[in-house]
Amino acid sequence: MFASSDKTVFMPGPMTGGHHQIGVACASCHTDALGGSDVLQESCISCHGEDRKKPFDSHPRSKFTDPRNADQLQNIDALMCVTCHTEHQPEMTGDNGLTQPADFCIHCHSDIGKDRPSHQGMEFNTCNAAGCHNFHNNRALYTDFLLKHQGEPDLLEQPVLPQREFASVLGELIDYPADRYPIEQLTATQADAPNDINVETSVHNDWWETAHARSGVNCSACHEVMPEDGDKPVWVEQPTHQVCAQCHSLEVERFQRGKHGMRLAANLPPMTPADARLPMRAEAAHTELGCTSCHQAHRFDVQSAAVDSCLECHSDKHSLAYKQSPHFKLWEKELRGEGEPGSGVSCASCHLPRVSFDVNDWMSRVMVDHNQNATLSPNEKMIRPACMHCHGLGFTLDALADEALVQGNFQGLPAIHVESMELAEADHKRAERERTLSEEH
Amino acid sequence: MKAIHKTLIALGVAASVAGLSTAIAGDDAFTKPSISAKAMADALHLVMDSDRTIYTRKIVNRLVKKEKVIKASEHFEDDKALVLPAQMFRFGSELVAKRAEKLDDVNFSYSLQSLWPINAQNAPKTDVEKEGLKFIAENKGENYYAEETLGGKSYFTAIYADVGVAPVCVSCHNDHKDTPKRDFKLGDVMGGVVIRIPMDG
């Protein structure tokens, strides 16, 4: 039993939705069998570390290390992730993996009513639940941000999503193998697959009609792989995500941070819909998730990857309702060439949005964030990277707080109203009155 | 004596910034205790306060108030603006805390607090902080020193007045929506720097 590589028999309880996929790999988190909470903390940070920094986290560790907070840490040790997110405890785990009572804010903010008269009488279990605050990510919820976006219409005047920038920055990517594969259009006859490889016409056409051939990426660029113990590249029939990462490293890295790719990051066999906890289509149960499961090899059609690929597996209520949604109508319109580029809203527009990423210290580019978790749990994380390109902030807050509207894939208007915008406005007016009063004196 | 030994090594951080000679490993003259916690805190504060004054006057006040070429904002990333002097100070203090965690011999912490904080979390919390901030506000030019126990550990705590050295200090604080005080004048004590040095292992 101890020698077996499968140690799930020792598991103290089922895992949360966030980690169940890597549950068989105990050592992903328990890197040292004898290690305590410090070892676990390091494991949390090794995957979640970049999200735990400002401005993405309002309560980073650095806020709490000062000894003056020692008394507060005795009530709730905010230095340790496991204080609020304990694994293997399904009976006490709430939304977003929270294993603290919902009123945990009270430990440090009990006198908020004094600083914010508007908050007097509010219950502490509503801080999160009312759609106003998150413990970690408040980038779209902080007061000055709410003020900046007061009075916006439900639908903005120019609702359009940003475009990807990979092609335009290729020349500036240091690691790009431009000496071997200069960025130039290849012709159909230039395909460099060895003669003994039987290339189907459809495969050949898919390649040379699309972006790879347009940018000088020949057959050998993906199919010739250097073996770990060899010095001569060998032809590989089905290249892995590591091959894609040669040029698309950020995309692959982000993919492995999300639920689709996290098993690859843990050196486990790829995720399959059969392993998912959300409802999936039975036909897709054994599809192994990698780059080409959504981006069919050779054609790499980003449009089908943005909707069709998702719906091949996902069959929950929200996914099934998509094709009746106003978002899908816009998507169809754009595909028909009737809507301007970026006016359509696909599954990916919200769940794998195009965001500006730092490639290095001096360059950022707009790319698809392939970590589909980055905009969920809680869904307010979606506001800035996705919703606000098209919708006003007030409308967005209401829509995301309306669970029934979310389930129905945004057919209709929000039936719930989040008061954040009004509270921010009232607070602003209070400050204005105070300023005027002080000037009068 | 152990505590003072620690504090001497910690002075290395300040010393290298202040341009004093740095310690040579193993040299007894550099590792033998010869400086009080108070002297170390005073030296640290001198560096902090000088850097803070320069940033406030020569960067923020010059570019925001005089040249009017850029804003300073607490949401500096969203607003593409300069970080506020108080944030500059806090970011430094957070980086020190993070780096010091990895150094066995270096252990001190510092923060900027006020009796009139814009962020309520920066109001004095411990009895020493409350008394010290009151003392430095009422006794201009004097510092406040005390020992206190926090989370079972004892600390030497020094508190220094933080003075409004530039027009931007005063105007931003008087104007901020969350300020509890709107009549600061240039040269007023607006808050205090609290430096803590642990007195035991």
* Rg of chain A, nearest Å: 25 Å
SSE string of chain A: HHHHHHHHHHEEHHHHHHHHEEHHH
Largest sheet report of chain A: 2 strands, antiparallel
For the report, how would you describe the main beta sheet of chain B?
Answer: 4 strands, antiparallel
Q: How many β-strand runs of chain A?
A: 4
Total number of β-strand segments of chain B? 4
Unreliable segments of 5+ consecutive residues of chain A: none
Report the sheet-strand fraction of chain A: under 5%
Number of helices of chain A: 21
Q: Measured on Cα atoms, how large is the radius of gyration of chain B?
A: 18 Å
Number of domains of chain A: 2
What portion of residues of chain B is helical? 40-55%
Number of domains of chain B: 1
Termini distance of chain A? 79 Å
Sheet with most strands: strand arrangement of chain B: 1-4-3-2
Strand content of chain B: 15-25%
* Overall average residue pLDDT of chain A: 93
What does this structure look like?
Chain A is mostly helical and about 450 residues long. Chain A has two domains: about 1-100, no CATH class; about 165-390, no CATH class. Chain A is built from 21 helices and four strands. Chain A has helices spanning about 35-50, 70-75, 105-110, 110-115, 125-130, 145-150, 165-170, 200-210, 210-215, 220-225, 240-255, 260-265, 290-295, 300-305, 310-315, 315-320, 325-335, 345-350, 395-400, 405, 420-440, and strands at about 225, 235, 355-360, 365-370. In chain A, strands 1-2 form a two-stranded antiparallel sheet. In chain A, a hairpin with an 8-residue loop joins strand 1 and strand 2. The longest helix of chain A is centred in the C-terminal third of the chain and has 21 residues, at about 420-440. Chain A is globular and about 85 Å long. Chain A starts with about 35 loop residues before the first helix and ends with a helix. In chain A, about 25% of the residues are buried. With about 200 residues, chain B is an alpha+beta fold. Chain B has one domain (about 1-200). Chain B has seven helices and four strands, in the order αααααβαββαβ. Chain B has helices spanning about 1-20, 30, 35-65, 75-80, 85-100, 125-140, 165-175, and strands spanning about 110-115, 145-150, 155-165, 190-200. In chain B, helix 1 (about 1-20) packs parallel to helix 3 (about 35-65). Chain B is globular and about 50 Å long. Mean pLDDT of chain B is about 85; it is low at about 1-25. The interface of A and B includes residues 63, 144 and 427 of A.
